Amino acid sequence: MAAAQRIVIENGAIATVDADDTEYASGHVVLAGNRIESVGAGKAPEGLENVVRRIDASGHLVTPGLINTHHHFYQWITRGLATDHNLFDWLVALYPVWARIDEPMVRAAARGSLAMMARGGVTTAMDHHYVFPQGSGDLSGAIIGAARDMGVRFTLARGSMDRSEKDGGLPPDFAVETLDGALAATEDTVRRHHDSSFDAMTQVAVAPCSPFSVSTELMRDGAQLARRLGVRLHTHGSETVEEEKFCQELFGMGPTDYFESTGWLGEDVWMAHCVHMNDSDIAAFARTRTGVAHCPSSNARLAAGIARVPDMLAAGVPVGLGVDGTASNESGELHTELRNALLINRLGAHKEAALNARQALRLGTYGGAQVLGRAAETGSLEPGKLADLVLWKLDTLAHASIADPVTALVFGAAAPVTASFVDGRQIVEDGRLLTADEDAIARSTRDEAQRLARIAAQG
């Protein structure tokens, strides 16, 4: 790091989210190239060479960048539809629309989803994309390209479906892949795009959609493929009571037992939602270190229920936060999920003891890094980790009278992002993207949403 260009951030409150939850009322962070060089109380060390910028973080809280662990970018262009439906009815209403997506639509939707997250403090994003209509183009390439252009660290969970309406599933027949086609396309995506290096900007996971849209063969073979290629596994799990009933009727067992029977529990696996988990399910996840992407706003929007996050954390289950698709979380922001995770979990059995502000911040940072398999590289502010961090402005009307900055960030209104850095590169300044034209993205997403609506209406 001796010859690296340095950025010095000083005079801000710092929440490192390290193993000891170390915090500084006024401290410094020094970035050297794409790494964090030092973090500590007071001013930065004297005599630093190659300092190209100094940032006065007075009135700010500095945290690790937020990490999104579950999303469906393509849904950006179908927001505001089926707003009074449960999950299964919502899927039935929207699959015929989603089945008409193409590459320009997906590219625009990915840019919209990424832009909304990035300007709200997300530095690592993921997308679970599982709809690949025939002849729709290079959808994975479009999504990965959008993340690269936005400057956000990214995991593509290359999804798939092979159980359509004729097989008892929900998607239209023309919207699914064959078993062999899905496996081959997934392997090709991994080989073309996955980067296993420490500072990787793009990684790929194997991600069949869900037990009710995927055959047992695709689940089992997908797990074997992921482990042969050395990548992670992702799917939806235990989201609704209807899913529990479906698994019992079709497989003779609940979702967790079904996942275990197909090789889908393990420290290289994370599941989205996990709302309906009993004690045995939670114990199985803890024993195998299977991760969970908690999506509180989407779970509420679709009336799925309240996930037992306090019990999962107490048992040792890795838990991160997810936006989920913006057809079930129209705001598309992860920083609001810090607050929603805390508030919604207090409606559960643990009441006010469910989660506190620092636990919520950990879910959105280090917990997310654990779930994505990147806790050694990001998720906390520690020397040697990647320079992914956010400066939250807390000295305005919205937050200035709250003494504790972490409480202000989590309990208060959505805090403005003064600066966000990914890999040592600033991508947001004063709440605006530096890597993309937000107004142009808004226009393109509106145009593509209208085009999709016209095509879907024509049948």
Q: How would you concisely characterize the structure shown here?
A:
This protein has 14 helices and 17 strands. The protein is an alpha/beta fold and 459 residues long. The model has no long low-confidence stretch (mean pLDDT 96).
Discrete helix count: 14
- Helix percent reads 25-40%
Q: Quote the distance from N terminus to C terminus.
A: 58 Å
Uncertain runs are none
Q: What's the Cα radius of gyration?
A: 21 Å
Mean pLDDT: 96
The best one-word shape is globular
Kindly estimate the percentage of residues that lie in beta strands according to DSSP. Answer: 15-25%
Summing up helix and strand content along with how strands pair, one would put the structural category as alpha/beta
The main β sheet shows up as: 9 strands, mixed
Q: How many β-strands, per DSSP?
A: 17
Q: What does this entry look like structurally?
A:
The chain has helices at about 85-100, 105-120, 140-150, 180-195, 215-230, 240-250, 255-260, 280-290, 295-300, 310-315, 335-345, 355-370, 405-410, 440-455; strands at about 5-15, 25-30, 35-40, 50-55, 60-65, 65, 120-130, 155-160, 200-210, 235, 270-275, 290-295, 320, 390-395, 415-420, 425-430, 430-435. By secondary structure, it is of the alpha/beta class. Strands 1, 2, 3, 4, 5, 14, 15, 16 and 17 form a 9-stranded mixed β-sheet that branches. A 4-stranded parallel β-sheet has the order 6-7-8-9. Strand 7 (about 120-130), helix 3 and strand 8 (about 155-160) form a beta-alpha-beta unit. The protein is globular and about 70 Å long. It holds the Pfam family Amidohydro_1. One of its GO terms (molecular function) is 8-oxoguanine deaminase activity. It comes from Streptomyces coeruleorubidus.
